[in-house]
Amino acid sequence: MLRRYRNAGEPLSCEPVAQGLLNRGYRLFTTRGTYFLKHHLDGDHQLITRQHRATQRLQALGVPVAPPVESADGDTVAVIEGRCYALHPWVEGRHRDGSQLTAAESRRLGGLLGRVHTCLERVMRRDSVPPLHEGPYSRYDASLGQGVLDRGIYDSPDPADTFELIDELLALARGRTPGDTFDALAEHRLVERRALLERHAHRRPAPGAEPATGWVHGDFHPLNLLYRGGEPAAIVDWDRLGVQPRAEEAVRAAAIFFVRPTGELELPKVRAYARAYRRAAGAAASELAAAVHRVWWERLNDFWVLRWRYQLDDRRADPLFAAVSALAVWWTREYEAVCEAFSD
After folding, report:
1. How far apart are CA 222 and CA 219, in angstroms?
2. Exposed e or buried b for every residue in 293-324, given b needs 16+ CB within 10 A?
3. Rounded to 5 degrees, what are φ and ψ at 276?
4. Residues 71-118: pLDDT tens digits?
5. Cα(204)–Cα(181) distance, rounded to whole angstroms?
6. Amino acid 155: pLDDT
7. 192 φ, ψ to 5°?
8. Contact 310, 251 (CB under 8 A)
9. Omega cis (within 30) before 178
10. Best CA proximity match to 220, nearest among 304, 110, 118, 316
């Protein structure tokens, strides 16, 4: 692969990168430097090229990204035995979650995401019409072969479908022998969530209630943002670049960055983040309020960690379950406070 590049050097070592749930990444040392080698498991050459063009254009606008290295023939995707790879410069930095951010840094984070959205709007105008998007949970549903590809992609989950899923997951959790503490917590949360859904089923967002759509990163969370000191050094992993309700990405990202292990959101930091996002993106408070309601409803109906564990026998996401499941309960109880923090 390295022979495709003019100045990449000769390989010295290649080490797997431990973090990340979907694609495979490697730290590649050569005689000329250090690179991040990414193996795109979905292997869609056209979509990967679209992502690469977007990061190149964003970098020209001053957005912190790490576009891929171009090969000698100007391509950014290397196809070897039917597999797609990309070579990126290695970015020294570390991941930081919301607990490690100050209020000022939380504001900068919100402003950064707002700038990403406005800059994407500029750079993607030059691109072709976007492909149909699989929705905000495609990163999980696609692994189960259940991505949706119609105009109903923005519709909110139907609680009737969720009740069926809860019954299925309950049977799987209770059927594990011997069960462990995770299975016991899963059973407790599934029963609890069914009761919450029965109580709040009438609050399902109406079709067409989604905020304004636009180009978004699609997977903005701490593992896809590298910091150097107190400043963001690079936003990485643009595999889910697509068109979605923009404010929902802002809410969804905050719910990942600022969730405590006990499932509560750090609302003062959320408020600082949301104010900066609204200013940078030109988003109205009503847009954020609508996004809060829709993302809350999605969280109430979402069991992706349990689906990975019980339907795919994949336990990589198990450590996330305690906070994720507790957040849905806390968010329901503190709904008004959460909405006010995002829209104040």
Report:
1. 10
2. bbbbbbbbbbbbbbbbbbeeeeeebeeebbbb
3. -70, -40
4. 999 999 999 999 999 999 999 999 999 999 999 999 999 999 999 999
5. 32
6. 87
7. -60, -45
8. no
9. yes
10. 110
